[in-house]
Design a protein that fits this description.
Order of helices and strands: EHEHEHEHEHHHEHHEEHEEHHHEE
Number of domains: 3
Shape: globular
CATH superfamily of the largest domain: Histidine kinase-like ATPase, C-terminal domain
Structural class: alpha/beta
CATH architecture of the largest domain: 2-Layer Sandwich
CATH class of the largest domain: Alpha Beta
Radius of gyration: 25 Å
């Protein structure tokens, strides 16, 4: 079995010995360096899966060493865990800003250290697997494209192959989302264990940040799976009558932390007797994503309005904010992310999120139009028409 290669960088020999003792498992191969210069030389000579890096060192401190590693192709993807006696917020934030993935404080807690090391090694291994799968997929796409260029007579066969590759891309997306869950569940599990054992309020806050970040990543995973299902007609809709007011209230509840963080006043102006027909889950996700986009882009302490009005046999639901407006090209592509070419992807789309792509797909399934309007007095209104039940 191949051993994980771990590099310990610390100018105190006793600290290195303690870490070596804690990480004495047969699955680890430990190397060490007493300063940043020696650590850089070691990384040139061999490859590592994880670096445990002390912050306070002479000549080159941990921040400088980490910055160097993240600037080089060979070492930029190696996860770095800072070893620090500091617990102040400024030092920790600076560590994350220069590229560290985590930190542990001295004196070391053996269980915590091993848990964090294993978590990042597992994440690194999964990332490498995904990269290899992605490279393999790109090679297959390139090979199929070359076949098309070389032989127009095999066009029908080539189209079939492209269809197969679309399935492969869909399977890859589903696999990526599924594979993400295992390490995320591990991180959340360890973080929740720490949450119950930590008494220091500052450290407790950081643990909760970790849990929130993992929950967000889980949401991204769920969104990727939903996108896949919608794009390839693998979602079975359940049409029923839905109260617009209740639908909005329910999904606003999910956004309370973001609303509080942005200090935004959310106003709901929807009559309680408006009933629309559609798939409750999909419409709920759409409402959530449009409101989330508005709150995230609204100025601090401003107002976001969620309203509805009758227009013939339809209900017009809209979300309006006073934030930055959509650029002209951004309006054109906001709900068509998969249609962007390479040049369009380089544009600085300030308001674009993948969630809005889901909104477009959901509205297409409901045969509903989506409108994006830059308001005269500033801000944006996103609205869509849904049939009355």
């Amino acid at each position: 079995m191949n051993k994980y290669q771990i590099l310990i960088v610390d100018d105190i020999v006793d600290n290195i010995k303690v870490l070596q003792s804690i990480l004495s498992d047969d699955c680890y191969q430990i190397s060490s360096a007493l300063n940043g210069s020696d650590a850089i030389k070691l990384c040139v000579a061999k490859s590592f899966d994880l670096i445990l890096l002390d912050i306070m060192m002479p000549e080159m401190d941990g921040y400088e060493v980490c910055t160097y590693f993240k600037s080089k192709d060979k070492t930029k993807d190696i996860p770095v865990i800072f070893l620090t006696a500091k617990v102040d917020e400024e030092a920790i934030i600076k560590g994350f800003e220069v590229g560290a993935q985590d930190y542990v404080t001295k004196p070391f807690n053996p269980q915590e250290l091993v848990a964090r090391v294993n978590t990042h090694l597992d994440l690194q291994a999964k990332n490498q697997q995904l990269k290899m799968m992605n490279l393999d997929l790109e090679e297959r796409v390139a090979a199929r494209t070359l076949e098309l260029e070389e032989s127009n007579q095999k066009l029908e066969h080539a189209n079939y192959q492209l269809s197969t590759l679309e399935d492969a891309k869909n399977d890859f997306l589903s696999l990526m989302s599924t594979e993400l869950r295992e390490p995320l569940n591990g991180i959340v599990g360890f973080a929740e264990m720490l949450e119950f054992s930590i008494k220091n309020k500052t450290n407790l806050k950081y643990v909760r940040y970790i849990i929130q970040a993992c929950e967000k990543l889980t949401g991204v995973s769920d969104m990727a799976l939903l996108l896949s299902a919608l794009r390839f007609d693998r979602y079975e809709m359940k049409i029923k009558g839905i109260s617009v007011f209740d639908l909005v209230k329910e999904n606003v509840e999910k956004l309370k932390p973001l609303i509080a963080d942005r200090k935004v006043k959310l106003k709901i102006d929807i009559p309680k007797n408006y009933i629309i027909q559609g798939d409750e889950r999909l419409l709920g996700i759409s409402i959530e994503k449009v409101i989330e986009n508005a709150v995230a882009n609204a100025p601090l302490r401003s107002e976001v309005l969620v309203g509805a009005s009758l227009e013939g046999q339809s209900v017009k639901v809209f979300v309006q904010d006073s934030g930055v407006q959509f650029a002209p090209s951004e309006v054109n592509y906001t709900f068509h992310f998969f249609e962007l070419n390479k040049e369009d992807r380089k544009n600085d789309f300030k308001r674009f999120t993948a969630g809005l792509v889901v909104v477009k797909l959901v509205m297409d399934l409901h045969k509903a139009n989506v409108e994006v309007d830059n308001l005269t007095d500033g801000g944006v209104r996103v609205s869509f028409l849904l049939p009355v039940y």
